[in-house]
From TrEMBL:
Origin species: Stegastes partitus
InterPro entries for this protein: FHA_dom, Kinesin-like_KIF1-typ, SMAD_FHA_dom_sf
FHA domain: residues covered: 131-186
Chain segments annotated as coiled-coil in the UniProt record: 539-580
The keyword Nucleotide-binding belongs to this UniProt entry's keyword annotation: yes
Keywords: ATP-binding, Coiled coil, Motor protein, Nucleotide-binding
Tree of life domain: Eukaryota
Regions that span the bilayer: none
MF terms in GO: ATP binding
Name the record gives this protein: Kinesin-like protein KIF28P
Length: 676
């Protein structure tokens, strides 16, 4: 702070300072001449030189004053011209419709007014024609569109190859404009149409800002803010942040696409919203994120860029584009390579290819808690809910040697596996209808997954050039001492199966098995913590709940033990009856209640799998964006039919389970009454 020096500077113009210096110098010269005259010295030569300097300074002062007066006159003329222009503009505003510019900077909005007088007017880069409206911007053609003002009606007709958007929708034909219509010409030239004075009224134009235009574009693409689940007008903050990211990136993506087109890069940019719930084992609706999908039209290579990466690359694209424009105009010749032919490692439009996450599918693990096999056809859904493929997968409870378990090994009470060994196999049979490979045959896929506490994801071998590839991939998992944490995981979670797309030139995804514990037989060990691990108790209420659950568990175990004991005695009586013991001869041998109940549970579980599939179809059933009134009616009818089928299927499954349980209980009581 002590080293800071302040210097006072007089606030004056350079002209004023020069005049002041000349006048001071003239005063010094006059004083010197008078002093020479008083001394009486003969200094004709010096006096002559001084008088010449004095005359020269006087001429400079007069010239500066004349120039200052000329500047003043020119400024006065400019002011008069501006006043005339403002007066003319106000008069035109009261006579004709016009378009008003809308800028991202609110202070620059409304600066440009382009009037549409009667007749036909071309709008674009051209300014040679007397009936043309000249505008400049990215994506603006020489003749971009035509305005027609006839009989107090204004229409806009896009020309071939030009991009025109009216109120968020792309216009390809003649459109009649209404007061306060929103126009986007080219990539991002935004205007608000102001109709005749008789149409204006007292409308508030301030709400039509730059964000309004982008929100309208996003709504046309199906991206908009809805109400919260509680029905209030408050919106989820995470959804609000993603929405504003989306509308901020939309004009940048449009400009990137236009630069790619003009530079002949053959790269297409598209905004997408990534749903992070697709990677959640519990299927919860987590936060969303905005990403940019980059596609090379020629090679069909695809990249997925984050928001930050795209914004950084966008600045580099602008530098390349400006260099190209300067080279085209001849203002700045760039030595070396042309900006259009940059090497790939320096080209902002290109990246090294890498595996791309196409979508995910959830395989729910609840059946393993009952040691019931499960076979499913899973839909692999992309980030926007599109169907990427159908994946055939199985969960097979097995022995330690890999042999599938039978119906007698099905559990009624999942807690019976606590502390015991649990073996099962995850089988990925086939992937059908791969859209990724259908779009380009030179691609491949891999399936990745991570189960419970596996520290590293596991991947299937890569398959290439096949729309319906056979995977035939089987992985054996084992829990040596099943804990409560693993049991809770099986009953409430799913294994997330990730579909990865491979491209030419990218490396395969490999499973890193260094940190994974395996047996000598190649079985992956999960739940290494053992059965002694308990969840921390956070409060007294949680502790009471745990104790109550433990009491219920003990009661269920005792009931199950008594049932098993009774079933054992019944089996002995049945065996005795088969050997000819009196009292039970002639009676038919029936299966035990445990086996009957297990079969009923298996039937119910398979029916609930079908119900879950029906629910997924119902969630994905949406009307087309281009549907008319008839199409919406057909959609409502189809939706009603799906709801009716879903309700009937659910009621039938529950009713069947109730009937089976009632029949088992009734037979149990009958047997108890006969053999008591």
């Amino acid at each position: 702070a002590k080293r800071i020096q302040n210097r006072a500077v007089v606030n004056e113009s350079p002209t004023e300072r020069l005049v002041k210096e000349l006048k001071a110098e003239n005063a010094r010269l006059l004083q010197r001449l008078s002093r020479l005259g008083q001394e009486g010295r003969r200094a004709n030569d010096e006096t002559k030189e001084l008088r010449q300097l004095l005359a020269h300074n006087e001429l400079q002062i007069r010239a500066i004053q004349t120039l200052w007066e000329q500047h003043l006159q020119e400024a006065l003329k400019d002011w008069e011209q501006q006043y005339a222009n403002i007066t003319q503009e106000r008069r035109m505003m009261q006579m004709h419709p016009y378009i008003l510019n809308i800028n991202e900077d609110a202070q620059l909005s409304g600066v440009v007014k382009l009037f549409i007088q009667e007749g036909e007017w071309d709008i674009g880069l051209c300014d040679s024609s007397p009936r043309s409206i000249s505008i400049k911007g990215l994506g603006i053609q020489e003749r971009h569109a035509v305005f027609r003002n006839e009989q107090r009606r204004v229409t806009l007709t896009p020309l071939t190859g030009s991009k025109v958007i009216v109120n968020g929708n792309t216009a390809s034909q003649t459109t009649e404009l209404q007061h306060l219509d929103r126009l986007i010409l080219g990539s991002n030239c935004t205007y608000l149409f102001i109709g005749y004075p008789s149409e204006r009224g007292g409308d508030d134009w301030s709400r039509y800002d730059y964000d309004y235009f982008q929100s309208e574009l996003a709504a046309a693409e199906g991206i908009h803010l809805g109400e919260s689940s509680a029905g209030s007008s408050q919106t989820d903050p995470s959804l609000l942040a993603v929405f504003y990211d989306f509308i901020k990136l939309m004009p940048m993506v449009a400009e990137a696409n236009q630069m790619s087109q003009e530079l002949s890069k053959g790269v297409d940019f598209k905004l997408e919203i990534k749903n992070l719930a697709l990677s959640d084992p519990k299927g919860h609706d987590l936060e969303k994120d905005t990403v940019v999908r980059v596609t090379s039209k020629g090679s069909k290579q695809v990249w997925m860029w984050s928001k930050a990466k795209f914004v950084n690359r966008k600045f580099l694209m602008e530098e390349v584009y400006q260099q190209h424009q300067a080279e085209q105009s001849g203002d700045n010749r760039v030595e070396g390579l042309s900006p259009v032919a940059l090497p790939r490692d320096k080209d902002p439009f290109w990246d090294p290819v890498e595996p791309l996450l196409l979508g995910t599918a959830h395989l729910w693990l609840q059946s393993l808690a009952f040691r019931i096999p499960l076979e499913e056809q899973l839909e692999v859904l992309g980030s926007e809910g599109s169907e990427e493929a159908i994946l055939q997968a199985q969960l097979v409870p097995c022995s330690s040697t890999g042999l599938p378990l039978g119906e007698d090994d099905i559990l009624i009470d999942p807690t019976e596996i606590l502390g015991r060994r649990l073996d099962f196999q995850l089988v990925l049979d086939q992937c059908c209808g791969l859209r990724w490979i259908r779009e380009a045959r030179n691609r491949g896929v891999q399936i990745g997954f991570r189960l419970f506490d596996c520290s590293q994801p596991l991947y299937t071998p890569a398959v290439w050039h096949n729309v319906n590839p056979l995977l035939d991939h089987r992985v054996h998992f084992a829990s040596l001492h099943t804990s409560q944490r693993l049991l809770d995981y099986l009953q409430s979670s799913a294994v997330v199966l990730e579909l990865w797309g491979l491209q030419e030139g990218c490396t395969h995804l490999t499973s890193s098995l260094e940190a994974v514990r395996m047996t000598t037989e190649g079985i992956f060990i999960i739940d290494e913590s053992g059965p002694t691990e308990t969840a921390p108790v956070d409060s007294a209420e949680l502790s009471c709940s745990v104790r109550a659950l433990q009491q219920d568990l003990e009661e269920l175990k005792s009931v199950n033990a008594s049932l098993r004991k009774e079933n054992h005695s019944l089996r002995e009586q049945l065996n005795t009856a088969r050997n000819g013991v009196e009292g039970v001869r002639g009676r038919s041998v029936r299966p035990s209640c445990d086996a009957e109940f297990a079969r009923a549970l298996k039937v119910f579980y398979h029916s609930m799998t079908s119900v879950r599939g029906q629910l997924q179809r119902l969630r994905r059933h949406r009307p087309s964006e281009e549907s008319d009134l008839l199409g919406l009616r057909l959609f409502v009818d189809e939706q009603s039919r799906l709801l009716r089928d879903f309700s009937e299927q659910l009621e039938q499954s529950v009713s069947t389970l109730k009937q089976d349980v009632a029949a088992i209980v009734r037979r149990k009581r009958e047997r108890s009454g006969v053999w008591s």
